[in-house]
Design goal:
Layout: H1 21-51, H2 76-90, H3 96-122, H4 130-151, E1 159-161, E2 169-171, H5 176-194, H6 202-219, H7 222-228, H8 239-257, H9 266-283, H10 287-293, H11 295-314, H12 324-330, H13 335-355
Antiparallel strand pairs: 1-2
Helix pairs in contact: 1-2, 1-8, 2-3, 2-8, 2-9, 3-4, 3-9, 4-5, 4-9, 5-9, 5-11, 6-8, 6-9, 6-13, 9-10, 10-11, 10-13
Pathway: Cell wall biogenesis; peptidoglycan biosynthesis
Binding site for Mg(2+): 192, 267
Pfam families: Glycos_transf_4, MraY_sig1
Length: 360
């Protein structure tokens, strides 16, 4: 919205600053961060008053989690609210990729909100049936995948770009749409599975968003793409503003989610943020790199898949409990120890993913 102030600029005044994505990204970060600090505690007070007993705790979960009974959920409303406010204020609203990631974020956030509401109102861990959540998720992802494809340059449409390999494109044809759908839905659910300890999910999401924001900015600039030998996707640079807002909103939320958490993000936050990461990767043609940058989420999701399949086949468990962060809890690791070590892993993977921009 503030970008339109450039209409009054003669090129040598303060209004000219709003032309720069980097300046507006800084503004989005600060706006989202301040939003989180201002509205965080009031939102927690409202959620605690409305939810009463808070988020239901799994009876088969780690014993240490029973002490968290009564902690309110739906804290993702704070992140999404900060993200939406900062993006609408600082991003160019004539950019289709900005509206694409906002559409996915809000839509998955609504699915998560419905799931959280069902859990706290019925005081059980079931929520909205999984098939319903997946069905709605794939519908949203189908719209977003087709949307992104229509705004990609014609040489890149329906093609999968491979990292490291220079100028390599796999023509998937119409199969690109279901592939992109899987990326978005998979990312949403992987982040959802990771959100099991205080502060565990939000920092890796922020790290991944920051990394993807830099990548989107790079592939959206023709001079950068020529230097880095990556594919040019005009318009994606504006996604950096969205990612900066996500980072700021995430920090504001982490202030209240740090152990011991005063609020959980719930499915409202985890599905929204995971879907956003998937949408950014699809928009920037870096779907495979998302698997590296968000490798922690991939491992969390795989641990659940492996556990379920192996148990059905043998009646035995590979892990003491899935997702894998619960496995380490069962082994006696302290919660802050698991969280901080997982943060370190997320940062290392992000650096590896970022390096693929130059390694050709």
């Amino acid at each position: 919205m503030l970008y339109w102030l450039t209409a009054w600029s003669d090129g040598g005044d303060a209004f000219n600053l709003f032309r720069y994505i980097t300046f507006r990204s800084g503004g989005a970060f600060m706006t989202a961060l301040i939003f989180g600090f201002i509205f965080g505690q009031p939102l927690i007070n409202v959620l605690r008053r409305k939810q009463g007993k808070g988020q239901p705790i799994r009876s088969d979960g780690p014993e240490s989690h029973f002490a968290k009974s009564g902690t309110p959920t739906m804290g993702g409303l704070l992140i999404v609210g900060a993200l939406l406010t900062s993006t609408l204020l600082w991003a160019r609203l004539d950019n289709p990729f900005v509206w694409l990631v906002l559409f996915v974020t809000i839509s998955f956030g609504l699915i998560g909100f419905a799931d959280d509401y069902a859990k706290v109102s019925k005081q059980n861990v079931s929520g909205v049936p999984g098939k319903v959540r997946l069905g709605l998720g794939f519908l949203i992802a189908a719209i977003a995948s087709y949307w992104a494809t229509m705004y990609h340059p014609e040489p890149l449409q329906y093609k999968l770009a491979l990292p490291v390999f220079k100028d390599t494109l796999l023509n998937l044809g119409l199969f690109f749409i279901p592939f992109a759908m899987f990326v978005i839905v998979g990312a949403a659910n992987a982040v959802n599975l990771t959100d099991g300890l205080d502060g565990l999910a939000i920092m890796p999401v922020m790290i991944a968003a920051g990394t993807l924001g830099v990548i989107a900015y790079a592939v959206g600039r023709v001079d950068f793409t020529e230097y880095l030998d990556v594919h040019y996707v005009p318009g994606t640079g504006e996604i950096l503003v969205f990612c900066a807002g996500l980072f700021g909103g995430g920090l504001g939320f982490l202030w209240y989610n740090a152990p011991p958490a005063a609020v959980f993000m719930g499915d409202t936050g985890s599905l929204a943020l995971g879907g956003a990461l998937g949408a950014i990767a699809v928009a920037a043609k870096h779907e495979i790199v998302l698997g590296i940058v968000g490798g922690l989420f991939v491992v969390e999701a795989l641990s659940v898949i492996i556990q379920v399949l192996y148990f059905k086949r043998t009646g035995k468990r590979v892990f003491l409990m899935a997702p894998i962060h619960h496995h380490y809890e069962k082994k006696g690791w302290a919660e802050p120890q698991i969280v901080i070590r997982f943060w370190i892993i997320a940062l290392i993977l992000a650096m590896i993913g970022l390096a693929t921009l130059k390694v050709r």
